[in-house]
Amino acid sequence: METITFLIDFVLHVDRYIGAFVQSHGTWVYALLFAIVFVETGVVVMPFLPGDSLLFITGALCGAGLMNLSAAMGVLLAAAILGDQCNFWIGGRLGSRVFAWENARWFNRSAFDQAHAFYQRHGPITLVLARFMPFVRTFAPFVAGVAAMDRARFSMFNVVGALIWVLGLCGAGYLFGNLEWVRKNLQIIIWGLIVVPGLVAIVGSYRASRTAP
């Protein structure tokens, strides 16, 4: 229970945790950022880790001079691309057996179904769109692997999606994260980065499930 409470607090106050880590451990923060993004995108059992808010906060810390923007973006891009490749490989290895699984402590069947319905509706472009959608972001490459998507085609959409996601959100944080209005309303912005994409994903997957044969 304590672990769940900590994870919830970390997601909602990622700015405080990352800022404190930079102050205490310096450049080790890049290893932490790589680990968080790689695990969120590469392991289907960890879809609740912060993604969008983490990138925005990282950009803001770079804008404040606490981190190097080029290094941070490079590390995050590598983590996002390699994480999706890992998840795609896992999905390919497991194949259609996944459809027989039910909810378990380590597998969220409803999140898988949501990502699968979204993939069925939008095809490979899901890999780009899903970058901005919690839970769908984690399961989209896994679903692509289960669906036996061509690896070269997957890799292309994977890289494009990672570039747009990392450069877009880190860049936004770098440019706007230290503005007075943004700093005063940072918690609202973090909530928005969690709730709004989640609602879009839910609506998209619902529509996809209604139109699927």
Describe this protein with a few key phrases.
213 residues, mainly alpha, 76% helix
Describe, in plain words, how this protein is organized in 3D.
With 213 residues, the chain is mainly α. It has one domain (2-211). 76% of the residues lie in helices and 0% in strands. It is built from eleven helices and no strands. Helix 2 packs across helix 4 (52-63) and helix 6 packs across helix 11. The protein is globular, with a radius of gyration of 17 Å. The termini are far apart.
SSE layout and pairings?
Layout: H1 2-12, H2 14-25, H3 29-42, H4 52-63, H5 69-94, H6 109-122, H7 126-129, H8 136-146, H9 151-176, H10 180-184, H11 186-211
Report the uncertain regions. Answer: none
The sequence of SSEs as H and E is HHHHHHHHHHH
From the N-terminal CA to the C-terminal CA, the straight-line distance is 41 Å
| Average residue-wise pLDDT | 80
Cα gyration radius (Å): 17 Å
Largest sheet: none
Strand content: under 5%
**Class computed from helices, strands and strand pairing:** mainly alpha
Compute the number of strand runs.
0
Count of the separate structural domains: 1
Shape: globular
- Supply the number of helical segments: 11
- Helix percent band: over 70%
